[in-house]
Amino acid sequence: MSEASRNALGHALFDYMIGRADDALGVEDANVAAFQRFELVPRLFGGEPPDLRASLAGRPLAAPLVIGAFAGDRVFHPEGLLPVARSTQRMGLAMVVSEETVTPLDEITAANPETWLQLRAAGSVDRVTRIIKGAANAGAVGIVLTLMAPSHPRPGQRPGGFDIGAELRRRGWQTIGTMLDGSNAIGVAPLPALPIWGAEDLRDAVQAAYDARLPLIVKGVLHPGDAMPVMQAGAAGLAVSNIGLRQSDRWAPALDQLPRVRAAVPQAQILIDGGIRHPADILIARLLGADLAVTTRPVISALTGGGEAAVDAFLRRMIDGLYALTLWMGDGEVQAR
Ligand SMILES: Cc1cc2nc3c(=O)[nH]c(=O)nc-3n(C[C@H](O)[C@H](O)[C@H](O)COP(=O)(O)O)c2cc1C
Question: Which domains does the chain have, with CATH numbers?
């Protein structure tokens, strides 16, 4: 993460972005480290000009890259997510928007129509249903439902020690979730950790999305045994993710789980989320079973350190780098270091 970003944000907010959990074993991001355990073996002959085009739940993308969700956008930049929306739209990429975003959803979808809304699978299904309907009206094209540890059982324990909810309340800001759930409360919705949602609740949420004509992707799968039940509940795909190790540092890196999750659901659309920093990471993830790669912190870092131009530069570097690597690779392989 860039020095420019740390200088722009100050230590408290920068630490929130990095978000080390209390049980962290070191300063290294284990998701990033997992990618460093693999290397690429290119072939010499027959590389064709690559076609990077991909799709997310049937909607076309210029490349297999999606921008992930982060809470509290306007704390990070005065224009919130709008520079990211404009940049991703120019690049032909989709973005996922947290329900804890301050910028109204219709302003974001106006800037990039390929916008998905991310919701926490906590509290009542009715609340999620109301937000899904609101998201469809505001122009979102899909829902990402975070099933893994969507709320901390001990309120007050926050990634990096920073309370984003309190910060938004202090500024008097509403978020998309509370705008769309009808409560119009200031800040983020205080959702209970218990009861944890069951398969029945997931099916109801999928049905609500289906009624609103939106595909729903489940975020937070790590155990291969969860992949099939998620797909059987009607999800359009799943994201292998430990939510950036923000709640606990001891969860398995997303990349380490990817091959077994892929083996459990060979036909499913799989996104990998966590640790994508370089074009080579996208290629490694694809060769290990992902259809699409999601990246978040590098975008926050670019946005805060250098604004829209820096987001453009980062995304361009990812796409151009992926093109070059794919061309050089031919039908090469990935192997453990
Ligand atoms: C500041 C920050 C806020 C986040 N807020 C959310 C959120 O509201 N909902 C969510 O599902 N994930 C959230 N995440 C997790 C990211 O979407 C992503 O899963 C994680 O950062 C791992 O990807 P990365 O290594 O590319 O950053 C947040 C991450 C960061 C850094």
Answer: 3-336 (3.20.20.70)
